[in-house]
Design brief:
The chain is mostly helical and 319 residues long. It is built from 15 helices and no strands.
Length: 319
């Protein structure tokens, strides 16, 4: 949760950051998904997760204290690369859960990921209202260090499913999966379009709420993440629903829900704040349902390649 937040701390403070720096972590995160997340198929995931979280904590120190633009860019790049920890946890959860509860397990991990995204917006908005934006990253250091300790104490281990395959072998297999598995290709296309709309909503929300007719402060903009949290708390119910449905039925239902709420935002988002609040809740619920159902379907293609399959889906999300 706190690791993936590294990408989203900046969103409520985009105006402040634009004065000091100009950066975007999206492509850095995609690099981590491509080159690091698939390692979960050939090495034990517990030590990999612990190492990546430790590196993330260390690099965040540099971001918080540097005043050099180039150093900030370099550190941001590597933070984005190691922020793929949740995408290593998802296949691990799928391996640990029984088949009939796999969607529920995946939904819990995904809800943690979304909660990290939303909490990052809320916390950074609150902090930036009263102190420097750098304090946002000081808090990030503390939260990640806390999570590192909890992972060390609580994270279960799981044996490696594949032996005899090389690192470049898993990269080649990912390329093969990407063009030979129809289910995977369809899931990637759906995720690509859906996440583009989801990200567009949350990023531009900062400027919608900060401009006419609302003119809200950074503090209030950050608090809008609380609305989305109510959608995240629906994760257990969403997981149970997907467990009892054909994944593609759940995907179609979720996609229709997203269309409805995107329509509300388009028609009334700039007219009345009630519309924005409703959309913040609805778009998180149905985007989560869509991601859980698609991930559940894709991870069933090959149990020995779950880290690679999940990485492919998430790379499509970042395109």
């Amino acid at each position: 949760m706190s690791v993936v937040a590294n990408i989203y701390w900046c969103q409520p403070i985009l105006i402040e950051l634009s004065i000091a720096f100009n950066y975007d972590l999206s492509y850095r995160y995609a690099a981590g998904l491509l080159f690091i997340a698939p390692l979960g198929d050939i090495i034990r995931r517990r030590p990999l997760i612990l190492l990546l979280t430790f590196i993330s904590v260390s690099l965040t120190f540099g971001v918080a204290f540097t005043s050099n633009f180039i150093a900030f860019q370099v550190l941001s790049f590597f933070i984005g690369v190691v922020t793929c920890v949740p995408q290593i946890l998802i296949p691990l959860a799928a391996d640990l859960a029984p088949p009939e509860k796999r969607a529920s397990a995946i939904s819990i991990v995904l809800s943690g990921l979304l909660l990290g995204i939303l909490l990052a917006r809320v916390i950074s908005g609150l902090i930036a209202e009263f102190v420097s934006w750098r304090v946002v990253y000081y808090v990030a250091i503390g939260l990640q260090a806390l999570i590192l300790g909890m992972l060390y104490l609580l994270l279960p281990d799981f044996p490696v499913r594949n032996t005899g395959i090389t690192y470049f072998g898993i990269l080649r297999s990912m390329a093969k999966f990407s063009v030979t598995e129809p289910l995977l290709i369809q899931a990637c296309l759906v995720c690509m379009a859906s996440m583009a709309c989801f990200s567009n909503f949350w990023v531009t929300l900062t400027f919608l709420l900060g401009g006419t007719p609302y003119n809200y402060s950074t503090l209030v903009i950050g608090l809008f993440g609380l609305v989305g949290m109510f959608g995240v708390f629906m994760a257990p119910l969403i997981g149970r629903m997907v467990d009892h449905l054909v994944p593609w039925v759940a995907t179609v239902f979720a996609t229709l829900g997203l269309l409805v709420f995107q329509g509300i935002q388009t028609g009334a988002g700039g007219i009345h704040i009630a519309a924005v609040i409703i959309v913040c809740f609805g778009i998180d619920v149905f985007r989560q349902m869509q991601q859980v159902s698609l991930t559940t379907a894709v991870l069933g293609i090959d149990p020995k390649a779950r880290s690679r399959l999940n990485a492919i889906v998430l790379i499509s999300v970042r395109l």
